[in-house]
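Recap from last week: sequence in, structure out.
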Amino acid sequence: MANNPLKTFLAAALVLSLFPSCTKTAWQNVPDPVRKQGENIVYEYDESNFCNPERGWYSLIGYTFKNGSMPSPVSPQVLKTYRSDSKKITLLLMEVFLCDFMHSDISQEALNVVSQGLANFREAGVKAIMRFAYSWTGTEVDDEKEAPEDVILRHIEQLKPILREYQDVIYLVQTGFIGSYGEWAGGGYTTHFENNDEGRRRVALALLDAIPVNRQMALRTPGQKMMVLNCSPKDTITAATAFDGSNASRIAGHNDCFLASGNDAGTFSSITHRKFWKNETKYTIMGGETCLHNEEFCNCTNALKDLEAYHWSYLNYGSVIDVWKRDQCEDEILCRIGYRLYLKEGTFSSEKTAGSKMYLDLKLVNCGFASIMNERELYFVLRDMEDKTKAWTYKTDIDPRSWQGGTENDVNIAISLPEDLVAGRSYSIYLELPDIAPELYRKSEFSIRLANKNVWDSESGMNKIYTFVAK
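Predicted structure tokens:
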């Protein structure tokens, strides 16, 4: 897999959490001569595709409330099938069509369906891309394409408690509500929002307010983001303003005609807008779907270039997959959508006695197209391999979202080995990237697996990176 490593030094202080209550401060800024002493491990890369949370191909789960129909929530058993060896899907677009509620509140029964549907995601080990809409018809039909603005705003208020209660299994919310399929198109695809930027802005900001501050909302084009925020390309996000909770840092993008034409079927109105999204997507989620088979643009060379340039994290494809299979880039795209983390090598200092300091120097590569986008924390866990009840967790202050796609990163830390380390006994060190939500923390389906052979522990959701015998 091609990448252009950019080394980033990440120094971190660690806090030792010794079960159940003892805490100690770890060490940092260790001199290089000390760090370079010890055992060097070269890790083996795993080329296979496997499930990882909040990235990759996605599929569709639709709920349509029309003509009095009340769909049943998709069961956890059915949802779990998406994680199967044949699919390897952890993201599902939960598309909710509120057709029966164009001029009324959403019924409590319908709200319950949405709520239970998300609850089932938790049990199944998958996450949702959310979108709400009112129709899926085009310009040939005269029906209303969406509810009036006041009704939409009321619906957002009704949905707000659900979006907050189930934020742990919501990866992203697409803005939706306006236009056919909730895709914000004009030109006859909307009833109430043609040339109505102020109305669109009010809907977008209301939804952004309803979504928890730790989740992003995606708009259909870069121009729409600039319109909603009343900003220009020069106001783009920087490393300093990324993930700071501002509206700008929380508005992402979804391109639903990827590789369709020279401007992705109107997604981009200028080169300036392309440059804007190339920078924005370093720090905000980019995803969507293909809509046309146009080999001038969807060929492997162009697809890989754009997937890298716009830092794609999730994708649904149509017939373009035939081109990628034929030209043999499907496997690479499949593995690199979103983040893909692996260890190249690690050095572990020779001190292995009770109460001593052990230095860990790791080279971690992200060969994916994007970085991790939702907040996570990096832990190291020390386990007694003979007494599995004993474990010590070391929490770092490293932000994994800083590991940009196509970069090599140094992770340099020091841990204080416990005072009750037993000489002659085997201990293992694990790298852990769990979900931060209390409901999902240390559920292996929501923890990140490294693309290395013989490191993943599917039971614990951790990656075993080193084993030693205490002295």
